[in-house]
């Protein structure tokens, strides 16, 4: 697996969300997502760093852990920006 694989997926997700916001399909503020969710959920980074230290160098779980962390940050930021969001 390539080293920048998780970063590429995060960039694609951010781009898709930004595009959907520009098309007015839902309200999305990248500044709100990055500031509010990181302020609230910063311990996830500690968990991610700890997990990557404990895992083997060639473990396939490292990118999965980081993808889950970034996905939870963005989901929390989006859902907190839209309190009336309904699945």
From TrEMBL:
Sequence intervals crossing the membrane: 7-34, 40-56, 63-81
Lineage: superkingdom: Bacteria
Domain (LiaI-LiaF-like transmembrane region): residue spans on this chain: 7-54
Xref: InterPro entries: LiaI-LiaF-like_TM1
Keyword field: Membrane, Transmembrane, Transmembrane helix
Protein's UniProt name: LiaI-LiaF-like transmembrane region domain-containing protein
Species this protein is from: Syntrophobotulus glycolicus (strain DSM 8271 / FlGlyR)
